[in-house]
Hints:
The structure is a single chain. The chain is an alpha+beta fold. It is built from six helices and seven strands; from the N terminus they run E-H-H-H-E-E-E-H-E-H-E-E-H. A four-stranded antiparallel beta sheet has the order 1-2-3-4, with helices on both faces. Helix 1 (15-29) runs antiparallel to helix 2 and helix 1 (15-29) crosses helix 3. It is globular.
Amino acid sequence: MTPSVSIRIAEPTDVPQLATLFKATVLQHGPQYYTAQQTAAWAATADDRDRFQQFILGITTYLAVNESNILGFAGIGSDGYVASTYVHHSYLGQGIGSILMAQILDHAQRDRLPRLYCEASKFSVGLFTKFGFHLYATEVVERHGVTFERYLMEKLMISKKADADCP
């Protein structure tokens, strides 16, 4: 069951709580998909405060919140790059990721972005696939001396005007 959620845009004062959410979720959920070394290297991303702040505030990052907590976040750049989709580990499987992804799609339609793209982790591929993203390549990247495979996915957006122009 999806908890009561509202959406708002991240503010600078949210960054420490988002770093905590990010790290806790990766440490809690990552071991189901990644080695201990990969999980620790990924979680360490939240420890670089300046870089993490840019990760959140350098783009539009939407927060799913309830009365007292941030339940998750998703960020999108002006070029259609979906930089993040993270849900607090206590709320995984409750529809929060879907709410955030719907917000990302609304943003893309509103800004008339022709394409969305991302580098998905093993545990986010399913969410992106559910919302019509398609895998077009994989790549191996290095983070903190550890290699990861990630999935390059995209969704081509069709504007309503384009649909109306078709016979």
